[in-house]
Amino acid sequence: MNAWSFMKGLTIIVIISSALGIYYTQEIPTEETIINELCTYEQRINFGYLAHLGENVLYNSTIENGEEILYISLVERIDVDIDCTFHASIRGEIKEAYAVIDSWMMGVDDPWRKKLEIPITSEKNIGTKEAVIKANISYNTAEINNFVERLREEVNAYSMPYRIVTAVRFDVIDEADVGNILETFEAELIFQFVPIGEGGVIHPSHTAIEKEGKLIEEITNINMSMVNLKTGLNWTFAISVLVGFSLMIWRYSTSRKIPETIRDTINVLSVSKDTVTVESMNDLVKIANSYGLKIFRERKDIGYAYTIVKEGVVHQFIEPSLESDTKKELARVQFRE
Q: Which one of 119, 221, 244, 281 is CB 3.0 to 4.6 Å from 329, fit for a cystine?
């Protein structure tokens, strides 16, 4: 195997190996994100109601939290209890905890909506990990029915169902030891009044009453071994491609100065603009025989230089000392000094 074939094969192997390495490592991340859970917390809004009934033969004087069907004609008042609770797993300073409670009445089929001016009573208890707000609101069904009748006359819809909505927004600001928590939670309790004949029924329902959250910390670690591997592969690929182009240029410049018939059998040491230096006397003999030229010998400080000249290009073999093998080659050619 001559030098050209060895270098060509080695360069191809390096290029393919580095390209495959780049391809298979491109999906491997150089950064890893670690998520640490610092604190968990939850907000809860609990609704409870107690319906006070007039005199009747069906039920007791009260019905609590959907124990029985609520008939409009029997209900005199509905008391609603609201408990807003915030709890954190880490101690901190709860700067603020407040609940905004709105009540309104709205039609089911028509978009009309009227705010109800209902008195609300509340109390608040704030600790280092927990905040509790309790509130109470009461609906007098007689007053609401009179209000509904006036609205029905306005919209000319005497049998239209309607709803009474109790909306709660619970806001908390907690400066915990591991970070600040600012959360808002909303929930609704709905009483839907459905007229049936001279009376009707009330259907209670509510939206989500619980919300959970957490404070997290994200830490990004750089995988330096992977960074170094990818950098090394990229540099190896770039350098091997550059070497490959250099070898192609060198091979092209060499191929123009050596006969094509013997090009693959010649071991070339170096190529300059006008000089080709071969590895052995045997290589120079092949070129001389191919061109039908004589070999010239010239003594130099480093030994003997054996040359042939073809179209301005000097082909040479430099021998520091004349060995027996070279003498045998010289016996087969004719040269002059």
A: 281
